[in-house]
Amino acid sequence: MNIAIIIPHYNDAARLRRCLDALAAQDLSGSEIVVVDNGSTQPLDDIAASFPQVRFVTEHGRGAAMARNRGVTETRAEHILFLDADCIPSPGWLNAARSAIGKADIVGGAIDVFDETPPPRSGAQAFETVFAFNYRRYVQKKHFSVTANLLTRRRVFDEIGPFRPGLSEDEEWCQRARGRGFSIALAEDMRVAHPTRSDWPALRRKWKRLTSEMFALNMTNHPEARGRLLWAGRALLMPVSILVHLPRILFSPRLNGWGERLRGAVTLARLRLLRMAWMTRQALTGRP
What we know:
The protein is α/β, with parallel strands linked by helices. The chain has helices spanning 13-24, 45-50, 64-73, 93-100, 123-131, 135-140, 154-160, 169-179, 200-221, 224-236, 238-250, 257-285, and strands spanning 3-9, 31-37, 54-58, 79-83, 88-89, 106-114, 149-153, 184-195.
């Protein structure tokens, strides 16, 4: 096989089926699909029976990083393509990935967001519509790609090493790659769609996890007192970021009406203040 598509999964069977339906409609010649289940309580027997071309394995080590690493060990394909179970690859996604081979050592694809519920949008959906997955900035300015849509060579992965759980593993992995001189590029036509978080509890859980992972990465890059001081400074900037980013919500052409804009603005303020509290505690205690 030339390309292995690695999909980590945990208790999201309906979205996994939707993802595999979209993949099954594409030209899968020269490719294999490996779904790595992270110890779900939801049974996957029906899905496995519906997609005999997909290999299902179980990884008991917790977290998507461990699942992705296991997926890589399960295949000897020359190219590795990471995809998340809740994403929907566009009809030309796999062919676009084939065309992107050779563009760079690491290729990040485009990520569009969509709502799974009818309008109007909740505050969480409005917030994510504006701010989630700024993939161009990630790849072109910060030089990393999220693993929801990332292509690399096995040789590159083997040299860099596995994803490290407990921190922002995609950014940290790409940092190691850049440190070794590997290149990264953007492939706009390698597109997937990702659902927005539909409500405040889901958005809060996402950012609780991300804030812990970002703190761990910060402390890896800036150990001990310096890292905690830098993190405290970032925490103090959270209220300022509300004012800086508020116009993006209020004047976004992607939102419909002032109701969605106001709900998005309230969510922006609520989330940034909560993140300030989390980050301040992390800086004081040194624990994620």
